[in-house]
Amino acid sequence: AQDLMTLYGPRGLVSKLYDAVNRYLKAGLTIYNPFRYIKQPIENELGLWFADSELVFNVTAQPKAFYEYFDTIITGKQNDIYDLFISLGGDKEDFYTAEMRRYGKDLSSFRDIEGTKLPISLMERIDRSIERNKTYNFFAGKADLLRAVYHHEDIVYRYYAFKRWIQKGMTPKQAMLRVEKSFFYAKETPRFIQSLSRHIPFAPRVTYEFARIILTRLRDYPASTILKVGLMAGLWDCLRDEMMEILGWDEAALRKMGNAAP
Predict the structure, then answer these.
(1) Cα–Cα dist 66/83, whole Å
(2) pLDDT digits (tens, 9 = 90+) for 114-143
């Protein structure tokens, strides 16, 4: 029974291997996907506009805040706003880290159950093989760099919003609360979202975060939020029509493709 639990239990070998595969599949959609590094700033700009449109159109404050942020983390220069931002948890998990939290542990963290031998010896062999694998170690080092880039692409937008809202008269705690309400912020999600996220890459958490942000905005700023949602829907329709025109498609062609789909 102990051997079966070690193999098939919640923290067993099979579960650990499943989580490891899941982790690399999700990494392939994010940090190993070069297009994400182009899309992410665009998505963050849209999120910034949705939170406070003035922040997007302030063409002097945004570059300055971005420069200050990266100058501070690279050189360690004194920055009181950054220190406040960090002390209030502004740099806590980005969206990728939150999604990967369950899968972030190495196989070597596998917890043995007393009295079992074969699964433990198998894990030991896996660990030793990984430690000796130069290719794995090479890409593991590159992954750390990619994770850092991906992380700071998100956090710099939080920092900019936090700084700008303080300049507009908010207290640091008020500014951080608004940051948490306005961005994909890796707080604990409901258990059923966590369960779905284990098997469905990103979609459950993305849906939950979008719903949380939009509903919070509707509660706090109903008029401007309805206007912005309408503008985004109209922009999407325009982009869709332009793409269809470029490709030479029409609604009849789309229906035909839909009917021909397996």
Answers:
(1) 15
(2) 444 444 445 555 555 655 666 555 555 566
